[in-house]
Amino acid sequence: MPKKTVETIIATGYQYIIQVKANQKSLFKQVIINTFDEKLCIDFFEDVSHARGRFETRKTFIYKNTHGISSDWTGLKRLIRVERTVTTKKKTSHETAYYISSIRSNKASFFGNHIRSHWGIENRLHWVKDVSMNEDKSKTVKGMAAENISILRNIAINILRTNGYDSLKYAMEVCVNNLKELVRLTKYESEYYKIT
Fold first, then answer.
1. Is the pTM of this model over 0.70?
2. Confidence class for position 59, pLDDT limits 50, 70, 90
3. For domain 3-105, which CATH number applies: 3.30.1360.70, 3.40.718.10, 2.20.130.10, 2.40.128.20?
4. 153 Cβ contact list (under 8 Å, min separation 6)
């Protein structure tokens, strides 16, 4: 996420929790350094879940030490390290993710729960787009077509979910050849979001 976006978030009175990725080299390196020593951790939270033969453990560590990080990251108050271990019958995988936040909370559970819910929403969206809409198999690559089609898929998913369809596969089966239902759904959406 660009630093200018962070400035805009803070300027409009909102807060942020942003994942730091390896392509943000200096920030990524400094966050790893600042969250390495668990003695400096101000709070810790562990969450364990088990579903469909899959055990998942998430450990969330939060830190106040923002030393060495550019002041361009407006409002920065906390650094977060999340360690995820997933065990199935076939394998165990480990993942560590890093985040920065403008939220001053000292509760690791607060950050852990927010990060987990966002991760779940994001994964659910990507899974639906790939499995139900075959996005990964799309051959559309010319110009901005792939991005535009992805946006249209997101709009379709949001319209269907807003109208109470939990199963997108079922929703697409109902709507694909039913012009009246498609018009009803889009009419509802346009009325719902009408600006008066």
1. no
2. very high
3. 2.20.130.10
4. 129, 133, 135
